[in-house]
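Allow me, if you will, to draw on your knowledge of protein folds for a short while. I have a record of one protein: its chain in single-letter code and its fold written as C-alpha cells. The full record is reproduced below for your convenience:
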Amino acid sequence: MTQRTQAELDSLYLDIFEADARGAAILDDLHTRFGTPKVVTTGGIDAVLQTYSSTAKSTVVAHILNRIARAKGDRPINMEPDEDSPV
C-alpha cells in the first residue's frame, strides 16, 4: 500500500467528495443517512448499544468532512487525536 501524507489524503478526500459530482452525491447521501447520531433513551442496554452504533456511523461521516475541511484550509471539527499523525 502506498504511504501518503495527511495533506495528500486530505486533497484526495476533497477531490472525490466535493470536486466530483458523483462523490458529492454519495457524501450527501451518507450525511443524510448517518451524519446525525440518534440517541435512544428507552430500552435499557439495547438503547445504549443502538446509540453507540449510531454514533459510530456518524463518526465516519465526520471524518470525511474533517478531511475536506483541512484540504480547504478550514478548521476541522472534533478532530480525532490520531488524525495529526502521518499515515
